[in-house]
Design goal:
The protein is mainly α. Helices cover 46% and strands 0% of the residues. The radius of gyration is 13 Å and the shape is globular.
Length: 74
């Protein structure tokens, strides 16, 4: 018997943020990263090293999000 998953049919907010980051849409990227944070997405452990977010690293919102997640300051 197959177990049903709670997020069935719904994309991860972190992955949606990655798509917007690749498209260069900074505002939507942060909107979706905030949703991922609110959902306590396990994907956020990759945020500090995920290359699709390289262009956001200088943004204070990125540092704030890393801090809230629990990463040590750079």
């Amino acid at each position: 018997m197959r177990r049903e998953r709670g997020n069935r049919g719904r994309a991860s907010a972190f992955l949606v943020a990655g798509i917007y980051a690749a498209l260069g849409d900074r505002e939507r990227t942060f909107t979706w990263l905030e949703k991922a944070y609110e959902e306590r997405s396990g994907w956020l452990v990759l945020l500090k090293m995920a290359p699709q977010f390289d262009d956001l690293r200088s943004d204070p919102r990125f540092e704030d999000l890393l801090r809230r997640i629990g990463f040590p300051p750079a």
